[in-house]
Amino acid sequence: MCVDSICNLEQNHQENPPNKYEFADIKDSCRIEYNGESIEFSIKQLINIKYLGQGCFGSVILTQLEHRPDVIFACKRMTLEILGNNDYSSQCDLRAMRDVGNDRHPHIVNFYAALIDLINGELVICMEALETSMDKFYSTLHSRIQPSSNLLDLFIRRLAKHIVLALDYLKSKNLIHRDVKPQNMLVARPVIFKLCDFGICETYNDSISLVLHI
């Protein structure tokens, strides 16, 4: 569990349905680089392991590749529509993940692939799977130990530093996250915080925010 690591700080539907939005460059299969290995798979090979959470525009599921228990993703599934908020959110999320998630920034969740689920009419974004989110981690930390004020200070300073580094990197890409909250801060060992969920991300030019379009 990540709680063990934080303690060390103190010491040191139908196929091609006509009413669904289509992404021309995304298919139901792909090839990716995963931990130095080239892997090809299709949407049918993704096996759901555990439900992780639900947002306004989609759900996130811990997913394993069929016959490959070592290949794990956090898959965000969003229903595709021709019009409406889901269409806007899915495009923003995918555009931002492609812009920043491929760069392997230490404080932004890694992006692996985007697939179309033709049966369910969903965009599936395959991302790095991390242990927990900040909102769950903080409550677990307090339930397991009684952190000292010094430990909490170190914890908060590290959290702030990592998220600010992530936001600064987004700024270098002319992106504004707009939804920074504990649920969108993921925790990895050894106490590394990463920013995720770019569904309502916007781009900016000089201090004037502009809606991100694809």
Automatic annotation (TrEMBL):
Q: Name one GO biological process term.
A: stress-activated MAPK cascade
UniProt xrefs under InterPro entries: Kinase-like_dom_sf (IPR011009), Prot_kinase_dom (IPR000719), Protein_kinase_ATP_BS (IPR017441), Ser/Thr_kinase_AS (IPR008271)
Alphabetic keyword roster? ATP-binding, Kinase, Nucleotide-binding, Serine/threonine-protein kinase, Transferase
The residues that the entry says bind ATP are K76
The main enzyme category here is: transferase
Which EC number(s) are documented for this chain?
Answer: 2.7.12.2
One GO molecular-function entry: ATP binding
Q: Which SUPFAM superfamilies match?
A: Protein kinase-like (PK-like)
**Which ranges carry the Protein kinase domain?**
46-214
| Keyword Kinase part of the UniProt annotation | yes
Question: Which family is this protein grouped under?
Answer: Belongs to the protein kinase superfamily. STE Ser/Thr protein kinase family. MAP kinase kinase subfamily.
Q: What is the protein name stated in its UniProt record? A: mitogen-activated protein kinase kinase
Q: Which organism is it from?
A: Rotaria sordida
Q: Which classification does the entry list for the species?
A: Eukaryota, Metazoa, Spiralia, Gnathifera, Rotifera
